[in-house]
Every structure is written in C-alpha cells, then in structure tokens.
Amino acid sequence: MELSARWLKWLHQQLFTWFRQSQRNLPWRQSRDPYRIWVSEVMLQQTQVATVIPYFERFLTAFPTLAALAAAEEADVLRLWEGLGYYRRARDLHRCARRLLADHAGVFPDDPDLLQGFPGLGRYTRNAVLSQAFDRRLPILEANSQRVLCRLFARQEDPTKGPLRRWLWQRAEQILPTADVGEFNQALMELGALICTPTAPRCSECPLRTRCLARKENLQDTIPYRPTAPARIAVQETAVVLRRGEEVLLVQRPPQGRWAQLWEFPHAPLEENETHERAALRVLQHLTGLDGQLGAELLTVRHGVTRYAITLVCFAAEYLAGDFASPFYQQGRWLKPAELIHLPVSAPQRRLARALVTPGRQQNLF
C-alpha cells in the first residue's frame, strides 16, 4: 500500500483528534521529564497500566530523580519493584541510571547514538523516551502499536518473525508526522490499548476504521497472527520456614537465573516419587547445611511463572544444629518475621512472609 501525503495527513488528523479527546490521565503524562517517561516505559513492559500506576507513584516518591535512583542500593530498588516481576528490568534501570550519572552527569541525553549499549535501553524504550521527552522523530513498536499496524495494513504473518518485524519498524517510521512525534506514538499505543484490543476490538469506535484493511476484509479477529499457547506445566515445590528462637532463616538466590539475588525461604521442586515432607528435609540438609526438626504444614501458595503452574507447600521447622552452608544460595540470614519487609523477595515468597506475621500463623510457628 502506498502512503500518499493525503493518506498520511488523514492518519495524523484522525489519531491526534481521537487521542486528545480520549487519552487516559496517566501520571507519567503530566510532564515531559525523560526520567519519569523512562521509568514508566520500563514498568509498562509486560505489565498492565492499572498495575503500574501505584508502583510508579511509589517509585518516584522514593527516587524522584535519576541521581536519586543511581545513588540507591539495588536491594531498595528491587524491594519497590516487588510484585511487578521480571526483576531484570529493575536491575537494568538501576545500572543504566548509574551509567547515565557517570557518563552524562545524570542528564538523559537527547541523542539515540549516545544511548547505544546502555542496560535495558533497547530500540523501543530508547525511542519511546526520546520521542515523548524531546519530540525526536523516532518510531516505536510494542504490542499495542504492532497490533494496530498489523490490522491497519492487514498483515497476517507472524509479527515476531524477522520479515514482518522489519517491515513493521519501517512502516512505523514512515507514518511519523514531522511534529508532535511523541504524542503520535502515544496515540498509536493508546489506540491499541483502548480500542484495537487483542480480542473483540471495538471497530465501530475506531478513528481509523474507514481505511483499516483488516476491518474491510473482516480479518480483525484473526490479525495479528497468534501462535498456539504452550500447555501449562504443573510443578510441585516445598519450602521450609526454619525457626531459631524468635527468628527465621531467609536465604539469597544466586546472581543469575530466575529471581536473581532475591531473598526467600529455602525451597526446591519435588524430585520424582518424592513427598513434600521428604523434599523439605532434603532442602534443609542439602540447600542450607542445617539440621532441623520438621513441623506442621503452614500453608500452600499457588502461583504461575511463564508456562509453569507452581504449587508451593510450606512447612515449619525447628533449628537443631549446624552452620549455614549451601551449594546454591549465596548467604543466609536469621531475621524476625517483622524484619522480612526490608528485604526484596518474589511475589509468592512475599505472600508466605505476610502469612507468617498474622497472629494465627505466628502462634503456629512460635
């Protein structure tokens, strides 16, 4: 499809008019501060807007400037990120802030070339920040805008694969206006979020409906291409809350892999034909090096990680002897339950920690 000047003028007018009337009042849209925009864009990756808003506000209260984020301890950054998942995003944000402070005096540069190779600043994030903060004429492509473009031009191929992916980036650049680029990019994303949704798109309310090729060909429900979701895999795990006096043991995960460097109660998947109780004893002996007397089951936590449906059965245990030594965990700490709030943990582990500080659970444990 040829993009004539007349067609582009129509596209810009339609999107701008719709966006100025229909956009949501989001906290990161209240200024063009590149730091605020950057934090929001990182948080919004793979996370819904409604979930992000309270995290964004707490994060900006704790770290109101790029310099404040750079000066923070990683554990404090992860603690505020807790529950958003994908903790690598938080680590990259923190590392990038420190590099921006060192290389650019804490100023977010208005130049994509100066941001090449910075942690977490891929093409989309870099372009989104620079177009919104500085009106740089740079295209964006994420899930919402990708869906809009696929439907607008009736592209039925897999948008995650190379050929269409390259075409979409080129088309996203070709349709940019010469001014108000950041607003245009936001409008494209907002249209995908509110109108051109993954299922049941509200085509009758879409400002682009008269020239949308997918709607014209009645393909809006099959575009964009969606691969078959992988089957969920059930995983059984056991965790141990080991008590020593008025304290419990918390351990820190390795610096690589899932939940890197977060703290947790020692736990592991069940081995073949293993009961939860036997797995709990194995966790104590082999992952902490400590001897303990296994007690009652405290609670069961169910959660999902990617394609895994995890059932975590948690037991109380009484410390008997030994010094902490683990082939897996970096270190162990003895803490009072009320102190657990100060360390970054994963969402399922936080559920377990919160359960321990409730009166009924404390009676069972202590």
Average pLDDT reading: 94
CATH domain topology of the largest domain: Endonuclease III, domain 1
The biggest sheet amounts to: 7 strands, mixed
Overall number of structural domains: 2
> Per the principal axes of the C-alpha atoms, what is the gross shape?
elongated
Separation of the first and last Cα atoms:
71 Å
Supply the CATH superfamily name of the largest domain: Hypothetical protein, domain 2
Cα-atom Rg, whole angstroms?
Answer: 25 Å
Summarize this structure briefly:
The chain has 366 residues and is α+β, with helices and mostly antiparallel strands.
Account of the protein in words:
The chain has 366 residues and is α+β, with helices and mostly antiparallel strands. It folds into 2 domains: 5-216, Endonuclease III, domain 1; 233-365, Nucleoside Triphosphate Pyrophosphohydrolase, CATH 3.90.79. Helices cover 43% and strands 16% of the residues. It contains 14 helices and 7 strands. It has helices spanning 5-22, 34-44, 49-62, 66-71, 74-81, 87-104, 123-134, 143-152, 162-174, 181-194, 213-216, 276-288, 347-356, 359-365, and strands at residues 233-244, 247-252, 263-264, 267-269, 291-305, 308-321, 331-335. Strands 1, 2, 3, 4, 5, 6 and 7 form a 7-stranded mixed β-sheet that branches. The chain is elongated. The mean pLDDT is 94.
Characteristics of this structure?
single chain; 366 residues; alpha+beta; Endonuclease III, domain 1; Nucleoside Triphosphate Pyrophosphohydrolase; 2 domains; 14 helices; elongated
